[in-house]
Automatic annotation (TrEMBL):
CDD domains: ADK. It comes from Constantimarinum furrinae. Pathway: Purine metabolism; AMP biosynthesis via salvage pathway; AMP from ADP: step 1/1. Its main location: cytoplasm. Its EC number is 2.7.4.3. Pfam families: ADK (PF00406). It comes from the Bacteria. SUPFAM superfamilies: P-loop containing nucleoside triphosphate hydrolases. This is Adenylate kinase. Gene3D superfamilies: P-loop containing nucleotide triphosphate hydrolases (3.40.50.300). AMP binds at residues 32, 37, 58-60, 86-89, 93, 134, 146. One of its GO terms (biological process) is AMP salvage. The gene is adk.
């Protein structure tokens, strides 16, 4: 079983690469955003609880998020592994994810981070904003803040996984195929 935490700043290509990698390695892609939307839309007990926090402008507690991820992992118990996208975001969440995987007699094998220069990210997001309809992709100031926030929050995760020898930075610039090739070299060796 291969379990990967896929990371990268906004616009790095995580969604695109997660789709390619899940097919190539027969992994289940767990996007925290998708899991939240599914649970809220379907009014699950966890979705209702998460929405109660979000409606007040509060962050959803880690325990609720972990419970949602646990349900996703359980739903896919026969999987060859998982690609976690959007989680963890803090050291406490990384520890909670480790604990969850330990309970499943598994582990996180690698954190793979797509590395892309800020100016390229800004250009990609502005371009995506022309067709995505996402307001946060149309404003350069907002884009730059999202990128800065990513770095502020993820430095601690980089250190967390580096200390375990599980951090792998991958050049996220080039064609989809070139980037997939670089990611595959890392995944094939874990």
């Amino acid at each position: 079983m291969k379990n990967i935490v896929l990371f990268g700043p906004p616009g790095a290509g995580k969604g695109t690469q997660a789709e390619v990698l899940k097919e190539k390695y027969n992994l289940v892609h767990i996007s925290t955003g998708d899991v939240f939307r599914y649970n809220i839309k379907n009014k699950t007990e966890l979705g209702t609880l998460a929405k109660s926090y979000m409606d007040k402008g509060h962050l959803v507690p880690d325990e609720v998020t972990i419970d949602m991820l646990n349900a996703e992992v359980d739903k896919n118990s026969a999987a060859n592994g998982f690609i976690f996208d959007g989680f963890p975001r803090t050291a406490a969440q990384a520890e909670a994810l480790e604990e969850l995987m330990n309970k499943k007699n598994s582990q996180i094998n690698a954190m793979v981070a797509l590395e892309v220069e800020d100016e390229i990210l800004v250009g990609r997001l502005l371009e995506r904003g022309k067709s995505s309809g996402r307001a946060d992709d149309a404003n350069e100031e907002v884009i730059r803040e999202r990128i800065a926030e990513y770095y502020r929050k993820t430095d601690v995760l980089k250190e967390f996984y580096m200390a375990q020898g599980k951090y792998h930075g991958v050049d996220g610039v080039g064609s989809i195929e070139e980037i997939t090739g670089r990611l595959s070299k890392v995944i094939d060796n874990i």
